[in-house]
Amino acid sequence: MKYRSRSLAVAVGAVSLAASLVACGSAQSAGVNEDGQKQLIVGSMPSNSLAFPYTVAREQGFFADEGIVTETVDAKTGPELTATLIGGSTQIAVGTPENVMSAMDQGQDLVAIAPFGKIDMQLVVPAQSGITDFKQLEGKQLGVVQRGSFAEKFARAVLAENGVDPESVTYVAVGSGATMEPALRAGKIDAVVATGSSVVLVRSHGLDVKTMVNTMDGTNTKLGDYALQTFWGVTGAFKKANPEAVLGFCKAMNRAAAWIRDDANRATGVASLGKLLDVTPEAAEQIWDSTNQSWSPSVTAEQWGKNVEWILGEGSTSLPYADRVDSSCQ
Length: 330
Description:
It comes from Rhodococcus tukisamuensis. By secondary structure, the chain is an alpha/beta fold. The chain folds into two domains: 4-118 and 228-324, D-Maltodextrin-Binding Protein, domain 2, CATH 3.40.190; 121-225, Periplasmic binding protein-like II (D-Maltodextrin-Binding Protein, domain 2, 3-Layer(aba) Sandwich). 42% of the residues lie in helices and 21% in strands. It has helices spanning 8-11, 14-24, 52-59, 62-65, 78-87, 97-105, 150-161, 177-185, 196-204, 236-241, 243-261, 266-277, 281-291, 301-312, 321-324; strands at residues 4-7, 31-32, 38-44, 68-74, 92-95, 110-118, 121-126, 141-144, 170-173, 191-195, 209-214, 228-235, 295-296. β8, α7 and β9 (170-173) form a beta-alpha-beta unit. The radius of gyration is 19 Å and the shape is globular. The two termini are 29 Å apart.
């Protein structure tokens, strides 16, 4: 099956966007194709394991089962994806708490929908760097995907958690895995914050790195106990105007998350991951084994509140669970 997808640059072009919205509905309404399927424009990250459930939902026909067909708008970072949702070039988009919650706090009418992805982040240093203690990171260059990104928020949190002043480190934007690895290999940065899949990719290319923080196994951080890394977002206006389409999307995505959690699907899932990330079968197996339990169909009010406080500051109550989380398909 072929899937439609377009880059962010094309998606936000006035002519291309106008043509798309005529065919597929608008930022406020889902379109319907000649087969009676609801058409949704979805923002996602290409070649990124964080959006793996979306890939599975398409490949396994879960969207089709809900009478939905999707067109994908590809973006490279969380801020870009949140911008597409707010700007109307997508109708549903994956996002990170740092970007979506901040936009919510600034008055944007956004609602979180399932599945909810557990935080999967690591802080690593070259194995031969001689860095063995967090205090040695003071004065060093720390790579993050983008300044002001979720990765930087995470880096600041775990540095503080381990007794290092977050302001004592210089944060350097190095992009995703494709550009992150060369920066680390060339010594342009002394450490890097990355997803688990990116770390596997770096190691598969022969660069030996030592893990100082890992949220998946609790190494030197407690964030893995509650922190979210991703969830899907929709505007309140679109959700109100298209409740069946949003519910169908959510159901399909939760089926995908359940499919990923089931190790009976490991062989098929590993092959899908390998294709998505363009990695070797061995690397895909490692990524599957470390992340296939990452996605949940729900988030509790308590967990949501902890994430709001982490992102917006202790004591923050500006994003009530009942107003900002759609629990209709949890």
